[in-house]
Amino acid sequence: MKSDSGTQKLFLGLFFCGLALATFVLCLYLFSLSPKEAFQAIADSFARIREELFLSLWQTLCMVFLSTLFSAVIGFGLASVMIITGPQGLAPRPAVYAALDAVVDVLRSLPFIILIIFIMPLTRLVMGTAIGTLPTVLPLTVAAAPFAARIIEANFLEVDRGVVEAARSFGAGIGQIIFRVLLPEALPAIILNIAVLAIALLGYSAMAGAVGGGGLGDLAYRLGYNRFQNDVSVWCILVLVILVRCIQSAGNLLYRRLR
Fold first, then answer.
1. Which of 30, 87, 175, 228 has its CA 20 to 30 A from that of 210?
2. Domain coordinates of the chain in residue numbers?
3. How far apart are CA 110 and CA 236, in angstroms?
4. DSSP tag of 171
5. How would you write the pLDDT of the chain (259 residues) with one tens digit per residue?
6. Under CATH, which number does the domain 8-258 receive?
7. How far apart are CA 176 and CA 178, in angstroms?
């Protein structure tokens, strides 16, 4: 375990050093600056957008954390119902399973940028407005919950059927099987897949910025694209890359701890 931790820290250090070096070389290449001028340009750029960058980062973290939490909870509920009512479920109900299966597939098929516009009336009804960081959590959750349901259902189905049958033979009820058998057995894989889901929501949150959702996507679109401030876009991309690496590393660490 200590060796894995040391290797991970070394990898992260090398990753961030390489990222910084790539940014520095890019500045030299694009702007034909001397090293001293490049460092000064980077420092000036960061100082100019620091407050907006940190605010946008906070908004993005709020959107991703809340939508990941809500979609994981809703997805767990849907997956539990699907694993109960499925063809080989604990209490098969073909009609219920078919209805849930269709709803999940329909929601998964909608591109997020279309979905967020399509459910704007619902967002406005529930949240009072469709613009801003917190209202964006609703469409993010609606978009991600079906994916969470599918991945959690798949993780439940991978649990050894013999373990479930053994629990049933000892008189365990449906709730006990889900929470005391399926969930503990599938939890490491679920955690790893939730990290993947959070990274997908990070990308969705950036797209939401184009329609008033706030966050890093909004900052990159509003200043980087509309006002041609390319350095703002570069800073947003760097922050998103770091966030992705951190989320995946956290997921990998929890997976190893729980396995």
1. 30
2. 8-258
3. 26
4. T
5. 444 555 555 556 656 665 665 565 555 545 555 666 666 766 777 778 888 889 999 999 999 999 999 999 999 999 999 999 988 888 889 899 999 999 999 988 888 888 888 888 888 998 888 888 889 999 999 999 999 999 999 999 898 888 888 888 888 888 889 998 999 999 999 999 999 999 999 999 988 887 888 888 888 888 877 777 777 888 888 888 889 989 999 999 999 888 8
6. 1.10.3720.10
7. 5
